[in-house]
Amino acid sequence: MLFAVMHFLAVVFALPMLWMVSASLKPENEVLRTPPTFIPTTFLWSNYTQAADGLLPFFLNSVKLASLNVGFLLFFAALAGYGFARLDFVFKRTAFALLLSTAMIPSMVYLVPQYMLFREMGWIDTHYPLWVPNVLTPVFGTFLLRQAFRGIPNELEEAAKLDGASVFTTFWRIMLPQVKPALAAVGALTFMASWNDLFGPLIFLNSTRLQTMPVALALFKGEYFTQTNLMMAAATLTILPPLLLFLVAQKYFVQGITMSGLKG
Questions:
Q1: Would you give the distance in Å from CA 168 to the centre of its chain?
Q2: pLDDT tier for residue 222 given thresholds of 50, 70 and 90
């Protein structure tokens, strides 16, 4: 019974996405037909070609920012997580508590001083504000990876020390491969946050050529406001990369979240 309910809810939640994909392949006069149809009478693949022509520069900007966010954040979060989990230093618990407390501060509180700082640094209308602050303050990633590192048996680390491995060698070659599922989980969440970020580009970017996919989709909506099929094609292209990422990394994502909760 429970599985039947879950399958029913899954179908209900998937219906808007199915309608979006269906509408993206229809002629304009068929999109808003009553009653609605899910299977187009005519498949217009040219809708995607027309939508992609205007979205390619924004797509490349989003890929660039997502890659920078994921790559650098994973590196710094893994270093910090390993340090808090396996190393002993003065005020470690206090430092970790302070790190977690920063996550409680709403972004709106420091938006104005942050904007003023970036303006003085000459970073306004560049991509730096959209990835540098994120990778240097990986609070959630540090917490998740710290939990994952704490779940690794001490014997692995002790064996590496007996072999004469340095702290960084132990981290890089012994410990880091053990937390690949957690890395995949943090990477997937970071990619989604970067890809779907609309607020940051609107605040810090002035040039259209630097904008990302969410902003481009809003601009596309304004340009093709009456052409619902083209808007749905653009929306489908926008959600395709994170959807594919989730489908590919789903197993590792679940494993990463699970192993991060093994030890408190």
A1: 27
A2: low
